[in-house]
Design brief:
113 residues, alpha+beta, 5-stranded antiparallel β-sheet, two-stranded antiparallel sheet, 7 strands, globular
């Protein structure tokens, strides 16, 4: 099996292509959502991009909670994530609550598009 892309958490063991420019990756220890810079520039607010780690042309949002920010801003990404990975569908209300709880500064500086 060929080695996956380099992520902030190491080399990817598995990559789910959600759509053009959007990936869910896992490594031996962690993972998360990868949003290509061009897609992020088109779909995400500058505030959302600040919460990602820009590396190798992607904004990276870790799997524990940071992924909720881009999925809150672009709800269809949650559906793509569910369809591709088999994860449980998360509602917009749950995403908003998680972002408010873990990233209150997000709402202090921007409103989602």
């Amino acid at each position: 099996m060929p080695r996956g892309p380099s992520t902030p958490w190491g080399t990817a063991d598995h990559v789910y292509k959600l759509t053009r420019g959007l990936r869910w990756v896992s490594t031996s220890g962690h993972g998360g959502l990868a949003v290509a810079r061009g897609l992020a520039d088109k779909k995400l607010t500058p505030t959302a991009r600040k919460f990602g780690i820009l590396q190798n042309g992607y904004y990276w949002y870790e799997e524990d909670i940071a992924w909720t920010i881009p999925c809150f801003e672009v709800p269809e990404w949650t559906t793509l994530l569910t369809q591709s990975t088999g994860a449980d569908l998360v509602t917009q209300e749950t995403l908003k609550a998680d972002v408010e709880r873990w990233f209150p500064q997000y709402f202090e500086s921007a409103s989602p598009s």
